């Protein structure tokens, strides 16, 4: 999900894409509270940040962050997938994340990406040996 969001924020889906210009779109993410992770990431994943002071390393578990502010989980994931340049903060500013399904942008949404993948994925092509 994060890669698709980063692509739309950068504008790579448009034919006028230029890496040096900002031509991306706004992205509205809903139901951030119900995000699912694989494996044991729910208990083991740790977010680290530093205050800049001696001994200022702060650690937050994924399970604690999803209860406190689920929007930060999505923003952190997308932020890591954007290029590290001057446009990064502008692009993150266009990412609107809501913990539940209600949001004030219902009328403005042009395209809906539904990323639900069925458990039985069929191969696109098959290689046959002769």
Descriptive report:
This protein is an alpha+beta fold and 130 residues long. The protein has one domain: Alpha-Beta Complex (Ribosomal Protein L13p, Chain: A), CATH 3.90.1180. 29% of the residues lie in helices and 12% in strands. Helix 1 (2-10) crosses helix 4 (70-81) and helix 3 crosses helix 4. Belongs to the universal ribosomal protein uL13 family. One of its GO terms (biological process) is negative regulation of translation. It holds the Pfam family Ribosomal_L13. Keywords: Ribonucleoprotein, Ribosomal protein.
User: How much helicity do the residues have?
Assistant: 25-40%
* First-residue to last-residue Cα separation: 39 Å
Number of domains: 1
- Kindly identify the CATH topology: Ribosomal Protein L13p, Chain: A
Overall residue-averaged pLDDT value: 87
Radius of gyration: 18 Å
User: Which spans have pLDDT < 50 for at least 5 consecutive residues?
Assistant: 117-130
Spatial order of the strands forming the largest sheet: 1-4
- Give me the oligomer status: single chain
Q: Give the number of helices.
A: 5
**CATH first level:** Alpha Beta
Shape: globular
The computed structural class is: alpha+beta
The biggest sheet, with number of strands, parallel, antiparallel or mixed sense and barrel status, is: 2 strands, parallel
Strand content: 5-15%
What is the strand tally? Answer: 4
The fourth-level CATH homologous superfamily is Ribosomal protein L13
């Amino acid at each position: 999900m994060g890669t698709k969001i980063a692509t739309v924020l950068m504008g790579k889906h448009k034919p006028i894409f230029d890496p040096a210009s900002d031509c991306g779109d706004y992205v509205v993410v809903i139901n951030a509270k119900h995000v699912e992770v694989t494996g044991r990431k729910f208990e083991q994943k740790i977010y680290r940040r530093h205050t800049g002071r001696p001994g200022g390393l702060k650690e937050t578990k994924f399970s604690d962050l999803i209860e406190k502010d689920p929007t930060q989980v999505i923003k952190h994931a997308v932020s890591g997938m954007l290029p590290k340049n001057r446009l990064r903060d502008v692009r993150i500013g266009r990412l609107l994340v809501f913990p539940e399904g209600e949001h004030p942008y219902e009328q403005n949404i042009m395209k809906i990406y539904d990323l639900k993948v069925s458990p039985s994925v069929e191969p696109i092509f098959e290689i046959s040996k002769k």
